Amino acid sequence: MSGRSKITLDESELPRRWYNVIPDLPAPPPPPLHPATRQPIGPDDLAPLFPMELIRQEMSGERYIEIPDEVRDVYRLWRPTPLFRARRLERALRTPARIYYKYEGGSPAGSHKPNTAVPQAFYNAAEGTRRLTTETGAGQWGSALAFACAQYGIDCEAWMVRASYDQKPHRRTLMHVWGATVHPSPSAVTAAGAKILADHPDSPGSLGIAISEAVEVAAENPDTKYALGSVLNHVLLHQTVIGEEALAQFDAAGERLPDMIIGCTGGGSNFAGLVFPFLREKLAGRTDPVFRAVEPAACPSFTRGRYGYDHGDTAGFTPLMKMHTLGHDFIPDPVHAGGLRYHGMSPLLSHMYELGMFEAVTKNQLECFASAVTFARAEGILPAPEPAHAIAAVIDEARHCTETGEEKVLLTALCGHGHFDMTAYERYLSGEMGDFELPQDRIDTALAGLPDIG
Ligand SMILES: *Cc1c(COP(=O)(O)O)cnc(C)c1O
To answer: Which residues form a coiled coil (predicted)?
Structure first.
């Protein structure tokens, strides 16, 4: 076992292809359905929203997809990303476990999101798109897409959930720096937004509402398309650079492959990106890790949602997707992990969860912030509130190893830094932060609005 705490790869080891898990699954995921006809959608149904190459990737049965040179050139600004062995955290916990984290916070936007924003902007620019619309919660995805659009000379227009637009102005400014236009959502510029404002002038917004607005504008303008930062197959595909690099890094470190891989799940993309390449190795019989998804107790799609067809947005413009959902009308309590506050989940991961291919647990935010502070004091890096969920679960497992004496190898993705989350950390440190109970009747009410499909 190597003594290094930081395992880096040479630029020449930047992955050349993304890994598509679908051909390796025992059964294919159920198809998305057209919201009006309720028939499986084809490429033409998606053409108003996405460029053809992304539609091809969304539906692809090929195991590997080549990463274009123009995308690898931009990836090289921050990739390959480092894998760290958290020796100081291990010592602080007095655990015999060996804890590793793949750090994605060194990207321009400070998270894993540019891994997909860059190829999405590239394929759009290559096919003549002039403008991309999108939604953003706390601004992680909006800032990643604004950066990516600036690389290929296309415009970016983002609808930012109202509550974050008001409370988190700094990521909005970052989007402006990279040249994007940012609207608070709900906004008066779209019919979907105006309708909600008429009924609820003080609406704090939600990701589901912001998606409706961005999709509406893309559908109505031929030179404009839409980009989504999580949930879809092509997004998960692009994130597999994380797991591919991590596999090479375990090899370079002379470390055995992890016994457990833990990741936070909002729409599922950083978890999938880390896990899928290891799952490929597991399916081939070369390793046998446990995979554990961690979601917020305030937005528990896997653990308390229903596996059924639902809309991706509030207005019902998007295709119906079979996924673990809390209902498209569900508005989660305002926990600080904005990136995890989505009512649905990746349909691909939802299908795999039903097949029993990984576990899911929930965490309350106070425990997550306590874990993030423990982590920052030991390792130096301040985690975003989203990966703090994964860190809380890693610390649980490491403590379990302390009791049993097991020398497990644990791996997680530290998928973003928390430098734009100082208000949340301040609230935690000053004792003002609380936890939320999510009563079952709130979930039941939102689930009652699900479309009636088998
Ligand atoms: C967006 C975001 C998430 C949640 O999205 P996933 O698709 O589940 O990865 C988690 N962490 C960070 C830092 C994010 O920006």
So the answer is: none
